[in-house]
């Protein structure tokens, strides 16, 4: 998969359906979801298959669409067409709708989290390569401590989010999936901030790929609850319960 128009959107959606994506989602979701959504993030491709994850979790057949909650209490629909309409990401056919019906979101948050991790790794890869190639004062900027700290902090955030997603996938717990999506969103925002700084002015240009991943990260962070909203929601849950559940045995 790549980010080109030939391998994204409705064409990729159809190709995945032909390959048995929906059967994989039913039979081996613990393999299918991390594999597919992480690859979407790493390659910069997109397809409306997040709909399938949420639909299946709600007991509906895949292949359609349903309103998804977005940051700020709004709702959006990710259409299965190539008519892009998202202000944040001009490649995505997402548009706002008045409202939607509550549905189980744990599996969808897990999928979006893996997508965010893939996108974060793509940004880190671009920044690392630039740091190795870019020469200043007679040596690669990768040798500068400030650059290394930014790259290291990004890697730590990504690895932590990925570990959280793996635990959430193992326990299949709604609260764990909420925390995993929040961690993945925060990692993506951290990656966007640090990688933009490493790339400098180059990262702002339309010719460089970083800005596409940054926009994708902002959109995905907002879907099914932003990292800020989910962190606040998790705090409210813990305050009401009075204790934190054990999500992993270390």
From TrEMBL:
Entry keywords, A to Z: FAD, Flavoprotein, Oxidoreductase
Q: Where would I find the Acyl-CoA dehydrogenase/oxidase C-terminal domain in this sequence?
A: 105-227
Q: Does the keyword Flavoprotein apply?
A: yes
MF terms per GO, please? acyl-CoA dehydrogenase activity
Q: Which InterPro entries match?
A: AcylCo_DH-like_C, AcylCo_DH/oxidase_C
- Superkingdom assignment: Bacteria
The protein depicted here goes by the name Acyl-CoA dehydrogenase
